[in-house]
Amino acid sequence: MPVPFFMATLVLYLIGTGFFLAYLLRRSEALSKVSLAITGIGFLAHTVALLTRMMEAGHVPLASFHEAMSFFSWTLVLVFLIVEVRHRIHVLGSFMLPLALISLLSAAALPKEVPTLEPVLNTVWVHVTLSMLGTVGFAVAFVAGLMYLIQDGLLKSKRFNVLYAKLPPLDFLDHLNQQSIILGFPLLTLGIIAGALSAEFARGSFLNWNPEQLWALVTWVFYFVVLMGRLTVGWRAKRAAYLTIIGFACVILTFIGVVLKGHGAIA
Questions:
Q1: Taking residues 198-207, what's their average pLDDT?
Q2: Residue 213: how many CA atoms within 13 Å on its side-chain side?
Q3: Does pTM top 0.70 for this prediction?
Q4: N or C terminus of the chain: which is more exposed, having fewer CB within 10 Å?
Q5: What is the number of helices (H) and of strands (E) in the chain?
Q6: Distance of alpha carbon 58 from alpha carbon 61, whole angstroms
Q7: DSSP at 265
Q8: Between residues 266 and 100, which one has the greater pLDDT?
Q9: What is the CA radius of gyration of the chain?
Q10: Contacts 24+ apart (CB under 8 A), 109-114
């Protein structure tokens, strides 16, 4: 990825994260406006970086873990900006932008060389895109669950402080949690199917039953149970919040395992 745009994005997300975290502790709405402006500029720089990388590589830049983590970070910020425009929930940036920053820092630590794909692997980006979009859905559910638990704790302890005033109502956070899973799960499912098809074309086997694939299937089953529990049994509120936090931890563990074994290249 072109270094100047990537580094500019990293710096802007870092500054934006600092302002958003300060916004959690102060009543000044000016902080949220400054944070949002910095985040928007960072998002534009990130977009240019991704487009430049695509032109440099000659294919969709999702063939390496560096590219995948950068795309994950970009999508997280995009989702935040969309929710911000629709609902004006400034405090959401205090939770989502740090997550995007961590993802981008992970990308910076991974090998940045542009991988050369064999013709049979030219469609691997479909699998990665769908899987990453599903993961973004789970990340938003994780953030909503975390915010729910914080707000619920403040209510029960009757600490009506600055943070309590800025966090959305519990019903909204519960709804955001559920909708994020509803959107994320089908995308992850399609990503797993696309990955199995790519593996069949490339290696002649849909599944190799390696630890990474097993963890991915465990994660899929976990979110399937959570989704069914929410839609049929009526799991709500605190239980759903805890489960989505646990589920996202499984996602992170799966990714770490894949990166450690993959040495930078997804294919």
A1: 65
A2: 11
A3: yes
A4: C
A5: 9, 0
A6: 8
A7: B
A8: 100
A9: 19
A10: 110/64, 110/65, 110/66, 110/69, 110/259, 110/264, 111/64, 111/65, 111/66, 111/263, 111/264, 111/265, 112/1, 112/66, 113/64, 113/264, 114/53, 114/56, 114/57, 114/64
